[in-house]
Design a protein that fits this description.
- The protein is of the alpha+beta class.
- It contains three helices and twelve strands, in the order ααββββββββββββα.
- The longest helix is centred in the first third of the chain and has 11 residues.
- The chain is globular.
Length: 175
């Protein structure tokens, strides 16, 4: 029996105890450090703030670094205090992050390329094939092919997963 990666991920998340989750988050993971790759940004406008160490792009923004592409209405690139290293990239307004077959949607997304992590907030949802997951906060680890999805302690918010069987996915491709 072959499990879809997202299905396997969801089963693992459901079975973890908080202690294991905390240990996994604190453990050093091996990932592609994209921080040394160039970031190409296209937009309608750009404003640079050298004192504030930021560059703000607005209007149909498309940013690409390695295999990750970010689409949004506004993108703020924050630089480290020393040097020209990018510290983080914040996308807001219709944020969409694409990596291979996975696409994340949110009102806001913060991308930390050094740690290989994207945090999605504001009605976040991640889709892969016919499967999807949503919650209040989605932390997506781009190289580990895993996500943490939470309701952020809100008793009214819920995590929701839609998992399609592999037979149904195969039928959908033949239509």
């Amino acid at each position: 029996m072959k499990l879809h990666p997202l299905s396997f991920l969801l089963m693992c998340l459901c079975c973890m105890v908080p202690v294991l989750l905390q240990a996994a988050q604190s453990a050093q993971t091996i990932h592609k450090d994209r921080s040394n790759l160039p970031i190409t940004v296209k937009s309608n406008e750009m404003t640079a703030d050298n004192k504030g160490k930021t560059a703000t792009f607005t209007g149909r923004v498309v940013a690409k670094q390695g295999d990750i592409t970010i689409f949004s209405d506004k993108l703020i690139v924050s630089y480290a205090e020393t040097g020209k290293d990018v510290e983080k990239v914040e996308a807001s307004g219709n944020a969409r992050i694409v990596q291979q077959t996975r696409t994340g949607f949110a009102d806001q997304a913060v991308y930390d390329s050094r740690n290989g992590r994207i945090v999605l907030t504001g009605t976040p949802r991640v889709v892969q094939g016919g499967d999807s997951i949503s919650g209040k906060i989605i932390t997506y680890y781009v190289d580990d092919d895993r996500s943490d999805v939470s309701s952020d302690g809100d008793p009214k918010a819920r995590v929701e997963a839609v998992i399609n069987s592999s037979a149904r996915k195969n039928d959908a491709g033949s239509r």
